[in-house]
Design goal:
By secondary structure, the protein is an all-beta fold.
């Protein structure tokens, strides 16, 4: 893994159970390593739009008005009052035939705003640069007209859901009101340009600043009589416009023309005969604009298509004209395509409008849009108008051959099967022409785009509006017209009634006006809907508008969802009403700047293979017992403790002994957080919102595409056997967790939950992705005792600690609870096979097999989901101390949908056929108890299953020990275990594998312990802290839970659990071992009774353990402590050395809020320092450290175990103004080629800590290329460690080098570990 530059990296430390994972918050610009899964879709726009159909029109009083056809859903009535722009808002104007608005256009744009949060997200109380929808309208006004001069002006206006933001006069150009041309050489015509649509407005962020820029297409003339008309394109800087309209800037926005005045003539010639045929031949005055990413570079190009006027005679065919421009971030345009012949089509009569749209019709993965040209073509002698289509695809830009940039996939093909409009155009300057409105969208929700278009038949009786939808049978194969179906609908039958006076004006906009279905019923059904508005005749001066929203599919046809009539449209001036799909009410799903958490060296546990049950103990016994005694006079209980060949092994198919895991980006999940405490947001249940569900699915598809290169497969050899200890198959992985706060819609931003005090509060919702960045390539199994994060309930060296039934084993399918006490959402646990009542003790060799019906479980085993947590054996706590680097929070990453519950890995375990117990036979076993092997036997169950978090487990239960009818000196009536009770703690390191007592500090470590925090209302917060060492908050009420066993057949009565706390002390600068004499008593728990093993009553067999809670309050200072546990009982005990144990805990502050920090305040000479020193390697006899050695001397290493010890020292210092007197969450790991094969966790170090941990390379495995020792801290990153070079030591390298090394130099174990968090800046580019 390449470590990002420190100046671009901020970190938060996170402790995953054993502190084998650490987390770092990263900035967005670290894109060389970290991939933002939603980059490109959340920064400047909504994830998926939710729009309303907004209609803008000229009212009969001369004002421009806008109304909403529907409400939040298409079926809701539109109740928002009309927005009014009076004619006087454009100056001192009075409506007349020579003064009115003659053209308008509308589009949705985006601005960026700062959103203030009700609850902090990642310590931030506000999110900057959040996209918000606005509606922008442009108006062309005729201010005055006489025989000599026509005065016009252009205006642009911006509104949102709260009202008008502002308007501005565009002074850089004046739009043409008429276009003058001559017919039959001498007849001069200057019809109103508003007879058709030739003024478009398109919003797109071309300069990448997050604000939509606005492209205007219009006709202008160089003189006052409408001659020399040109098609002009101008782009207005959106950010400058918004700032000018809001008054935050006095500088007018820039207006840049894309083409020169001579570049794109709308007509050619001056006083020549431009159109032959006199009044019979009139041009359509049609000009349309569309944008699309034609070349697949992620930026939109601009296409302009118009009916060009040029000289000729009555029989001449007049070509349409097409130009495509590419616009850079400085608004400089390059013409990349121009053609005015085939495939552009031709016009012949006034009704021959053109239409234009762009979209990915064939579903290509390159992201290239096609350009669709529609044009009406009248015959010379008849009034029949055919609709023809051409489809153009981008090829390659050639500046010298602009007509070659695109090629025609479909060229000038007539669309058949629909209505044929009949145009009966009446003479006169105010005649209207039907526009040809074209939209592309997925209208039937099948995943492919359809082509929709509208036109009006201006017949002699009245106009009729026709909606046509062309659907291709297989758009991926052929887009030709012969491969699809044209469905045509007369909207007159659906309430969209047009007028009788020849007004053919209408407008059409596709959009997401509603979301059908609910997530709870299987997900939202989302399709583009069709919004139309048409002018309907009432009187000559006043007409009504009919508008509606429709859904469509090929089988059911059109279904009208909304309908509205406005009675007050002006009928005389023929200003085309315009429809736009826009979200100005913040109803679309908008996500805020993400929190990125880089998790380094997370441990993924893939498989836990338990060693078969054994037993070793030394207990007091009376003189009647004939068991052998140790040097202290205690009877030895040895049940196959050193039986060679007694082991568990995963059985695999003959072709493979491997498990294959694949890590991919996890699909987005939803969560809630107060600050950083995470809970579940139920996107799939009663709180479901179809808008949310669909937006999440859109985001998921984008995330998969964006991170498709972040996929890793690892094949693991599962041939190792578990004999003297459990074997764990775990791998290290780097991942980045991306959390995006939900900003809009506002009703989905927050969720109501109960806080730690029992109060109802609203908390921030977010969407989360987990992206794998690196997965270790080699995998070595690790012994359970060598992994500090492994926390089973049993001790595999004591039969009394095993449960009686397999379903009582930790992690059995269906038994897992998350840290909130709920079942995880995606339970994948599956019992694959089990074997009951197996007898352990046969004299002869045998092998008991537990076989899986692989055919029955094939699919589940091939796609077994794995959680990124270290399973139920780990627990979970992430409590970093805050170091104020830029912006700091006190992170609490736990609970549902925390990164410890987000699945990124699936494992193919289909090669696993079962599990076998290899039994070498007891005939030759010489028990240290001094009794025959047949007296040692017991019955048990074993099985193989996947936990609910996906971990593959082979587990054991001990069914029965006590045997009243046998002569066994160990289990029968004369057994010492029947004479006395034995209350005990789970101390798995109490005995070495050779049967001698472990008197080192590690021998007293307690397992089976969890903690929870109790709130002020006395309610336990459902999160647990579980580890061999634990971080707890300061000034908190803590509830601990400890499992206490009775390791005998006799009831233990009147047992007392005493809990002590001892501040750690240092001797010569090194933390001394725990000393009960220095500890204070903080709680006493009375345990009236613990049943003996194999005891039963009328309800059945009783458990010989109890889980007891105890409470204490942590101090107000950050400090490390030893927590001592001591059991006392009134009666005699079998053993006195299993009732006392300890763990280390540390306290740290939390919840202090946000701090600011200036990076320049860091003084390198005053930084704290974590360092390893005095590192010594010893060869082990089993698991007992022996003589000092080096790994080079022990090659090959397979089958050998070692101990490494030394000091992890901390020197206090300052990070900025914050003094660090204690370092939290230190893990010392032994790493072999990326696999952690040994670890020791220290929750807090104030001076130096003497660590000691074992590691081994199993039989049959090759010697790793490199073995390293590295110290990681969840508090201080290497950037703020005074000397990161002293954090690691190379223990062995095949290249021969050894010695010190920097933790930051370890690809798999980068010391990017701090507690600063930062919300990523929103990217400014596209």
């Amino acid at each position: 893994m390449k470590i990002p530059p420190i100046k671009k990296l901020l970190a938060v430390g996170c402790l995953l159970a054993s502190a084998l994972a650490s987390a770092v918050y990263v900035r967005a610009e670290d894109s060389t390593y970290y991939t933002d899964p939603l980059a490109g879709i959340y920064e400047h726009a909504s994830i998926s739009p939710k729009q309303r159909l907004i209609v803008s029109y000229l009212n009969k009083d001369g004002s421009m008005r806008s109304y909403e056809v529907s409400g939040k859903n298409a079926t809701d009535p539109g109740t928002v009052p009309e927005r009014v722009t009076k004619l006087t808002d454009f100056g001192s104007l009075t409506q007349s035939d020579t003064c009115h608005v003659f053209s308008s256009a509308a589009a949705q744009g985006n601005i960026l705003s700062t959103v203030h949060l009700q609850e902090p997200f990642a310590g931030a109380t506000e999110i900057p640069s959040v996209p918000q929808g606005v509606q922008v309208n442009t108006y062309f006004v005729m201010e005055n007209r006489n025989s000599k001069r026509t005065t016009t002006s252009a205006w642009i206006e911006m509104t949102n859901g709260d009202g008008r933001i502002g308007r501005m006069k565009i002074t850089e150009f004046t739009p043409a009101y008429t276009v003058a041309w001559r017919g039959d050489t001498i007849r001069r015509h200057d019809p109103l340009i508003g007879s058709n649509i030739n003024h478009d407005l398109i919003a797109y962020d071309w300069n990448g600043d997050g604000y939509s820029d606005y492209l205007l297409t219009f006709i202008t003339a160089t003189d006052n009589d409408g001659q020399n008309a040109k098609v002009r394109l101008a782009v207005i800087d959106g950010k400058g416009l918004y700032e000018y309209l809001t008054g935050s800037s006095q500088t007018r926005p820039s207006v840049r023309f894309l083409n020169g005045e001579k570049d794109t003539p709308f007509l050619t010639g001056d006083k020549k005969n431009l159109v032959g045929g006199g009044s019979f031949r009139k041009p359509p005055h049609s000009c349309r604009t569309a944008i699309g990413d034609f070349d697949g570079d992620g930026r939109a190009e601009i296409a302009v298509y118009f009916t060009k006027i040029r000289g000729g005679n009555i029989t001449e065919a007049l070509d349409n004209h097409l130009v495509v421009y590419k616009l850079d971030k400085n608004f400089s345009a390059t013409k990349i395509y121009e053609i005015d012949e085939k495939p552009c089509g031709r016009w012949f009569l006034q009704g021959d409008s053109v239409g234009l749209a762009a979209g990915n019709l064939d579903g290509n993965t390159s992201g290239k849009d096609q350009l669709v040209l529609l044009y009406a073509r009248s015959s010379q002698n008849q009034r029949h108008t055919a609709i023809n289509m051409s489809i153009l695809s981008y090829q390659k830009y050639d500046a010298k051959n602009l007509d070659k940039t695109f090629s025609a996939t479909v060229s000038e093909k007539e669309l058949r099967g629909g209505f044929s409009p009949l145009h009966n155009m009446i003479g006169g300057a105010r005649d209207t022409v039907s526009p040809l409105e074209v939209q592309i969208g997925d209208f039937d929700a099948d995943g492919y785009k359809e082509l929709a278009f509208t036109f009006a038949d201006s017949g002699s009786e009245r106009c009729k509006l026709t909606l046509n939808i062309f659907k291709w049978s297989d758009p991926t194969g052929n887009l030709d017209v012969n491969t699809g179906t044209l469905c045509a609908y007369n909207l007159d039958d659906n309430g969209i009634v047009m007028g009788k006076n020849g007004n053919a004006h209408h407008s059409f906009a596709a959009g997401r006006y509603s979301y059908a279905g609910t997530a709870a019923s299987g997900g939202a059904t989302v399709m583009d809907q069709l919004g139309v508005v048409a002018a309907a005749w009432s009187t000559y001066e006043s007409q009504q508008l009919c508008s509606g929203i429709f859904t469509w599919n090929k089988t059911d046809g059109l279904d009208r969802k909304a309908f509205k009539i406005d009675p007050d449209m002006h009928g005389a001036y023929y200003c085309v009403p315009r429809a736009a799909a826009a979200d100005i009410h913040k109803e679309s799903m908008v996500l805020g700047t993400p929190l990125a958490i880089a998790v380094t060296d997370r441990v993924d546990l893939y498989s836990a293979i338990q060693a078969p049950p054994r037993h070793w103990d030394a207990v007091s016994a009376d003189e009647s017992s004939t068991l052998s005694r140790d040097e202290n006079g205690n009877a030895i209980a040895d049940v196959f403790y050193r039986l060679s060949g007694y082991s568990t092994k995963i059985d695999t198919s003959k072709s493979s002994s491997s498990m294959v895991t694949k890590s991919d980006t996890h699909e987005g999940s939803a969560g809630i957080t107060t600050g950083m405490k995470v809970g579940q947001f139920n996107v799939n249940g009663s709180k479901a919102d179809p808008n949310f569900a669909w937006s999440l699915s859109v985001a998921n598809e984008h995330a998969k595409t964006k991170t498709n290169k972040k996929s890793f497969s690892v094949e693991m050899d599962t041939s190792a056997t578990a004999a003297l200890d459990d074997q764990l198959y775990a791998n290290t992985c780097d991942a980045t967790v991306w959390r995006y706060p939900v900003i809009w819609p506002e009703d989905l931003r927050m969720s109501a939950i109960s806080d730690d005090k029992g109060n109802n509060v609203k908390t921030q919702n977010f969407i989360q992705y987990v992206v794998p960045e690196r997965v270790g390539g080699n995998l070595f199994p690790v012994s359970g005792r060598n992994a500090s994060w492994y926390n089973p309930n049993h001790d595999n060296r004591n039969l009394f600690t095993y449960p009686r039934q397999l379903k009582q084993t930790k992690g059995y399918p269906g038994t897992m609870k998350d840290v909130w006490g709920d079942e995880p959402e995606d339970l994948t646990g599956l019992l694959l096979a089990e074997q009951d009542a197996v007898y352990f003790g046969n004299v002869d060799a045998a092998s008991a097999a537990c076989s899986i019906n692989t055919a029955q479980h094939k699919e589940a085993m091939e796609k077994n989901k794995l959680s990124v947590t270290t399973s139920v054996y780990g627990g979970g706590d992430i409590k970093p101390k805050a170091v104020p680097i830029y912006v700091t929070i006190y992170a609490q990453l736990d609970g549902n949908y925390a990164w410890t519950h987000s699945c990124t890995t699936t494992s193919d375990i289909s090669n696993t056929s079962g599990v076998s117990i290899h039994w070498p036979g007891a005939a030759g076993y010489v028990s240290k108890s001094g009794i025959a092997p047949e007296q040692l036997g017991f019955k048990g169950d074993f099985g193989i299953y996947t936990q609910d978090d996906g971990v593959l487990c082979a587990s054991y239960a001990v069914r029965l020990l006590k045997d009243d009818n046998s002569g066994s000196l160990l289990w029968g009536p004369s057994s010492p275990y029947r004479k006395k009770a034995d209350p005990a703690l789970n101390l798995p390191n109490r005995w070495y594998s050779d049967g001698t007592r472990n008197t080192l500090r590690s021998g007293g470590y307690v397992r089976g312990l969890t903690f929870a925090v109790k709130n002020e209302a006395g309610v336990k917060i459902e999160r647990s802290y579980s580890n061999t060492g634990t971080l707890l908050p300061t000034n908190a009420k803590i509830v601990g839970k400890l499992r206490v066993f009775n390791l005998s057949f006799k009831e233990a009565a009147n047992v007392t659990l005493k809990v002590y706390r001892e501040p750690t002390a240092s001797v010569s600068g090194v933390v001394s071992d725990p000393d009960l004499s220095r500890a204070e008593l903080i709680n006493t728990v009375n345990i009236p009774s613990i049943p003996g093993r194999d005891s039963y009553d009328e309800s059945g067999y009783l458990d010989n353990w109890t889980d007891r809670e105890f409470e204490f309050k942590t101090s107000g200072e950050e400090k490390a402590y030893w927590l001592h546990f001591k059991l006392e009982s009134a009666g005699e005990e079998l053993s006195g050395d299993n009732n006392y144990g300890y763990i280390m805990i540390a306290t740290q502050n939390e919840g202090e809020g946000t701090k600011k920090f200036a990076a320049e305040l860091v003084d390198p000479d005053k930084l704290p320092d974590l360092a390893l020193s005095g590192v010594t390697v010893r060869e082990c006899d089993g698991d007992k450290p022996g003589l000092e050695t080096t790994l080079e001397e022990q090659i090959p290493l397979a089958g050998k175990s070692f101990n490494v010890s030394g000091h992890a020292a901390f020197t206090a210092g300052h990070v900025g103004t914050t003094k660090c007197d204690i370092i939290h969450g230190v893990t010392v790991n032994v790493v072999a080629d990326g696999s952690v094969i040994g670890s020791d966790f220290v929750p807090g170090i104030e001076d130096a800590y003497n660590f000691s941990l074992n590691f081994a390379i199993p039989e049959g495995y090759k010697t790793p290329k490199e073995i390293k020792l590295v110290a990681l801290s969840s508090q201080i990153p290497s950037a703020y460690d005074k000397d990161p070079e002293n954090n690691g030591v190379i223990l062995y390298s095949s290249g021969g080098s050894s010695g010190g090394c920097s933790a930051a130099g370890f690809p798999a174990l980068a010391a990017l570990l701090a507690t600063a968090t930062m919300v990523l800046p929103r990217r400014k580019g596209r």
